[in-house]
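Bug report (template v2)

What were you trying to do?
Predict the complex of my protein with pyridoxal-5'-phosphate.

What happened?
Run completed; filing so the output is reviewed.

Input:
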Amino acid sequence: MEYVSTRGGRGVDLGTAVRRGLAPDGGLYLPRSIPPLSADFWAALPGRDLVATAKGMLAPFLSPLPPESQERVIRAALDFPLPLVELEPGIYLLELFHGPTLAFKDVGARFLARLLAELRVPAGRALPLTVLVATSGDTGSAVAQAFLGVSGTRVAVLYPAGKVSALQEKQFATLGENVQALRIAGTFDDCQQLVKQALADPDLLAQLDLTSANSINVGRLLPQMVYYAQAVSQLPRGSESPVFATPSGNFGNLTAGILAARLGLPCRGFVAATNCNDVVPQYLESGRFVPRPSRPTLSSAMDVGHPSNFDRLLALFGGAHPAMRAEIRGSAHDDAATLEAIRRVDRERGYLLDPHTAVGYLGLRVALAADPGPGIVLATAHPAKFREHLEPQLGRSIPLPNRLAACLELPSLALPLPADFTAFKQFLLTWTD
Ligand SMILES: *Cc1c(COP(=O)(O)O)cnc(C)c1O
């Protein structure tokens, strides 16, 4: 399979697309074509196991990798449960938060980590793949956890000192092994700048095998298709096709759903559910895409004013607003409505929604009022991740899952560095693990 930039031009192979992340013209990579899978493949979905479904859906896109190597990536990435829970009659939650950092980003990050390791040529090369990631909190832990212990790779996680929560910091700074946290005396922008500068530095590029694992990488998008199918496979036998509601920020998750639909996934459409950062619902309404600065909300991972995957979505619909609108319904919900939904579902169903999932739930309710039938909300995070915000609102404490509670007890192994490129470069050139 070739990958082409959303801005056109010549295609590249999987390895190039995944190593580059962003295309040189500034566009995002998409597969050149998305050949639908057979009706037989989809008819056999309900009884099939996750790995077999993933192999069938991903094989066309991983073509240069031998099948055994594809299977290693798939097994390592999708190694936690993805249960479908019925919340109310006909309303289901696909729980994507049973991975190491309790959020759906674990799936994409783990897949990308293993993919980069498998694509390393020649295998067994002396030089490890050095992955740089700047984080303001959550991405760092998903990426660090994803690469932890993956041979031939090592990760430097740069984060702004004092600007990430204690729990977030513990999640990536206590790991050790091939993960080095760097506590930068500066802002998140400084961290990003250091990573950018390193990836463009001729000395470093000559001496190290450097890459970044940012969220726009097509290698993170591909595996996310699989859980949409995994959700459908768990619906009761004989169910009608579902509507999917995807809590969205940068719209990677929703883009993956559209890709799955192109492969033939049975579904009645999608809901692009956002908080008040609603440039995509606005676009669906008006046909005009007007990015604007983001505003802080309770569902902070969706506070995005210029969603990076919008160009991918647009490309998948050939730039046509009516086509996108026929498949995706926009739905925006403010913090007051989100909190109200969290409280009501907690009271009536005994299920605690995280704020992101709650936005998806609200979007699904609106969609089902117009189009009755089964609906699935992608539950993108565990509520305990946001307990600092939720506890005061709910007036009770939310227990941390054991795994997270355990890392709070461990010492931080972060190395302090000034926000200065010379110091960072010196660290990279002398880094031995
Ligand atoms: C990142 C994130 C989202 C948004 O996903 P996109 O793919 O950026 O749209 C939603 N919920 C949670 C919990 C997230 O971490």
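What did the reviewer find?
The radius of gyration is 21 Å. The mean pLDDT is 94.
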